[in-house]
Write a structure and sequence with these properties.
CATH topology of the largest domain: Beta-lactamase
Number of domains: 2
Bound molecules: 6-diazenyl-5-OXO-L-norleucine
CATH superfamily of the largest domain: DD-peptidase/beta-lactamase superfamily
Shape: globular
Number of strands: 9
Number of helices: 12
Strand order of the largest sheet: 1-3-2-9-8-7
Helix content: 40-55%
Largest sheet: 6 strands, mixed
Low-confidence stretches: none
Length: 329
């Protein structure tokens, strides 16, 4: 059941919104025509806990296309269909260290590096079990809707325009067909992949979707189990190592929670058993991640000390003892 989080959380989000709204750094993604028309001053933040606690600020109910954040949910579906070994047979689990649309296939096997880059996501789509691409897409949409706790829809205009101009993804598909890493037909697979990217969500939805991962696969509002605990753990693992593309290392240093971004300006991050956070702001940095979204997470992670590898508060030595210790050493 949905309940309000304490005022300190609402205030933290509202303050961050006001502090970061004047930031004008970053560029809109312009290779997908409608994204170039997004309003750069849109900025929304929302947090949701596995128990259904919720707080939000700014444009948290403004729709955006989910783009690459969808890759997380298709990966979860394939883990359910084929298990980890079934996925790893076709897609690797290593950071590529390159941009999201790079052509990087593993030597010898031809596998794309991981399911979070475009090449890996295209192959992952093809692995969803279904009789045809209509059913394949419906299953992906069902997984995303289950995580959001409501029926999500596609922005058909964004889909059509990206499908018409997606030369690079099309080239990736043909290249992988020739390398043997994609066995399905390119066009229908690309259609499923770009349709999943064009699903409309809000920052609030992203928070609930991330909270579903943080809760081990159970939606905090509907109580529906949408994926296994193991699948939630596996996707969060790859979000931690590959979710922010070639900025994933620095993200883990500074924020320390598994995350995934998309070119429409969405960011989603999850902290197991603690919270899911959804952010939306269209201007992107040079790695393709939302400028305000990344900075907001830096500040929140520092303030609330949520780094996955930080010692729990009750295990930390008081600062005075640490100083004595250092002197004695
Ligand atoms: O395939 C593409 O290029 C887009 N539909 C999705 C890419 C994306 O969101 C990369 N994220 N930062």
């Amino acid at each position: 059941m949905r309940r309000e989080l304490p005022p300190v959380v609402h205030e933290a989000l509202a303050t961050l919104h006001d502090e970061l709204l004047p930031v004008t750094d970053g560029e809109l993604a312009d290779y997908i025509p409608p994204l170039a028309k997004a309003r750069p001053d849109r900025f929304g933040l929302a947090v949701c806990t596995p128990e259904g606690g919720f707080a939000a600020a700014g444009d948290h109910d403004e729709p955006l296309t989910i783009q690459s954040i969808s890759k997380v949910f298709t990966m979860a579906l394939v883990l359910g269909d084929r298990g980890l070994e079934g996925l790893l047979k076709h897609v690797g689990a290593e950071p590529s260290g390159e941009s999201f649309n790079a052509v990087s296939l593993e030597e010898g096997t031809g596998r794309p590096d991981n399911p979070m880059i475009n090449a890996g996501a295209i192959v992952t789509c093809s692995l969803v079990k279904a009789d045809d691409s209509t059913e394949r897409f419906e299953r992906i949409l069902g997984m995303m809707s289950g995580c959001a706790g409501r029926e999500l829809e596609v922005d058909e205009k964004v889909f059509e325009l990206e499908f018409a101009t997606s030369d690079r993804n099309r080239a990736l598909g043909h290249f992988m067909r020739s390398a043997g890493s994609l066995t399905a037909e390119v066009e229908p697979t690309l259609e499923v992949y770009l349709r999943q990217c064009a699903v409309l969500v809000t920052a609030s939805d992203l928070a609930v979707m991330a909270a579903t991962l943080a809760a081990g696969g159970v939606n905090p509002f509907t109580d529906e189990r949408v994926m296994s605990t193991e699948a939630a753990r596996h996707v969060m693992t790859l979000m931690a190592t590959c979710g922010m593309y070639d900025a994933s290392g620095e993200w883990m240093l500074r924020v320390g929670s598994p995350a995934k971004s998309g070119v429409a300006g969405g960011v989603m991050t999850a902290s197991p058993a603690q919270f899911g956070l959804g952010l939306f702001s269209p201007p992107l940095d040079e790695k393709g991640n939302s400028v305000r979204g990344v900075e907001a997470c830096h500040r929140l992670a520092e303030r609330f000390s949520w780094h996955a590898f930080a010692l729990p508060a009750d295990r930390q030595l008081p600062a005075a003892l640490e100083d004595d210790d250092a002197e004695g050493a």
